[in-house]
Amino acid sequence: xxxxxxxxxxxxxxxxxxxxxxxxxxxxxxxxxxxxxxxxxxxxxxxxxxxxxxxxxxxxxxxxxxxxxxxxxxxxxxxxxxxxxxxxxxxxxxxxxxxxxxxxxxxxxxxxxxxxxxxxxxxxxxxxxxxxxxxxxxxxxxxxxxxxxxxxxxxxxxxxxxxxxxxxxxxxxxxxxxxxxxxxxxxxxxxxxxxxxxxxxxxxxxxxxxxxxxxxxxxxxxxxxxxxxxxxxxxxxxxxxxxxxxxxxxxxxxxxxxxxxxxxxxxxxxxxxxxxxxx
Length: 279
Fold this sequence. Notes:
Layout: E1 3-6, H1 12-24, E2 27-32, H2 39-44, E3 49-53, H3 59-73, E4 78-81, E5 86-88, H4 96-124, E6 127-132, H5 136-139, H6 145-165, E7 170-177, E8 189-191, H7 221-232, E9 240-243, H8 245-264, H9 266-270
Parallel strand pairs: 1-2, 1-4, 2-3, 4-6, 5-8, 6-7, 7-9
Helix pairs in contact: 1-7, 3-4, 4-6
């Protein structure tokens, strides 16, 4: 039986995924900073769900969650780094304390979890690590620079990790959701405290008081959970899995832009090499 460890299960994609894998009959270490928000999951699946208090920035809690998965279920087969929060701010407006917490949550926290599960996965020569990123890591919207930077760091690390652990039988996949109908744009979203008027038309357009997005997003977290489970059953996983048509369209548009710019400046790009000896 497959055992999952999923972070950030109090709502949104994390909760949908936890409920879906448990409904299928898998084991799951279901985590949240406030376990009172996930008690009903344990009540519904008492034999296969283990609830754990987990703040991913707390290394002791990280280790306890992984050890619990090993102790009760015999090891973690699939780690899903999902916990996080949103932050919207112009780069100039960004507060250092929130930016540090953003990177602690979205980058350093997942790193601690990856390091904690890898020894047992290496010994077993199997396992899967799923890092939930965002399409913003590719497109970096105005007002989301710090969030996009944290997710981009996680993606860069994930690609190196994949190259290191694939020969050991371990898989790594990055998920890039587009807009989903979760609390990400509600209670899980923070904004810069002192907005600067000059950014009102750019970063300011994404501030809470100017946004009508929350509750109207096209993405369904329950469907996203089923999609992730379906993909993880494949023999060959994609490294990047965008979720939602908007995410796919934004990814393809960015790819086209990069190709166009590279082609337009090809001569300049190539001119920086030493002349070839056979030229």
